[in-house]
Write a structure and sequence with these properties.
By secondary structure, the protein is an alpha+beta fold. Helix content is 20%, strand content 32%. The chain is built from nine helices and 19 strands.
Amino acid sequence: MPQPTPFHERTAALCTSYAWKHWGGYYAVCHYDESPEREYNAIRHAAGLLDVSPLYKYDVSGPGAGAFLDWVLAKPVSALKRGRVTYVCWCDDDGKVLDDGTCWRLDKQRFRLTAASPALWWFLRHADRFDVTVADVSADLAALALQGPTSKAILADACDADMGALGFFGLTEARFDGGAFTALITRTGYTGDLGYEIWVEPVHALRLWDLLMHVGAAHGIHPIGLDALDISRVEAGFILQGCDYTAASDALIPSHLSSPYELNLGWTVKLDRAPFIGQRALRAEKARGPAWAFVGLDIAWEPLERLYAAHDLPPHLPLAAWRTPVPIYRGMRQIGRATSGAWSPTLKRNLALASVEAEFAAVGTVVDFEVTVEWERCRVPATVSALPFFDPPRKRA
């Protein structure tokens, strides 16, 4: 049975939609209202507060912590400065992605990893030859994502940290509620906007929630669920495990596997360094070029409108992001699949994330996107677009 997070007492009272899902063994709100519209607007125009406690968290400590992480991650992190966070992925021996997440440098000999799915088994499998301790601290930390243009102002009023000095992918410790408790703040998030994540001991979780909601009232704060997050992460071009790719450990057949280069994560791979897991396979793939590419699609609106008009119907789009794979064609041949998508309220565009054969990945390429109208399979044009779709300067400011 799923468990309540440390914030459940507050989120349950506010969730008038009764729309919940299971995430990492916990209950998670899909949307608080009848639709995610208000929650999405909070992310893009004010601030949204999301319970992200179900994320998996692992502490890696000891004299060999840096060397160990350099071995298991596709990107070396031993030179990461204290108080910095970086985005990482890790692969199996064949260079196929197991998971992606973040790595923090907490101290000289201590790092923290976040992950979408359980990864302790993988890290422990490779820890034996290093002077390192890997600990699952998932249940030891409650977490909130505070995302949106007013998020910095809210935290500036709620804690003693110098929010102006906390740069993109930075990390700091702060005292909240007049020094009643401390928490870690990372300038990270999954919305592609200005945002932060706050990590606190569960005993202080409700106090943190109440404080942020109280202080944030003057800044337009709203609690948000996963549906609003999903729309914003599509706009940001962020991949989602189990949706846009399958973890190598969960793949049933070879076609389910993906490399970092096939997921637009080649920038998280550094090949020319000491050996690491998957290095040989990744080096060979980079030399020959990946077979697949992860791209954005801008789905044409007028042809879609005409398909519905032929049945005397208005166009229909889901209120939330969709995650059902949709075939992509070029002429008579299927060349890939869209893995998730959403109507962007900010950009006023019908967007999708897709995996296509590499030869069709150039920006500006026009492909055919399958749609079903009145039980009839049809196609509309879609144009390959650069990712991210939405990338406001405030995200890094």
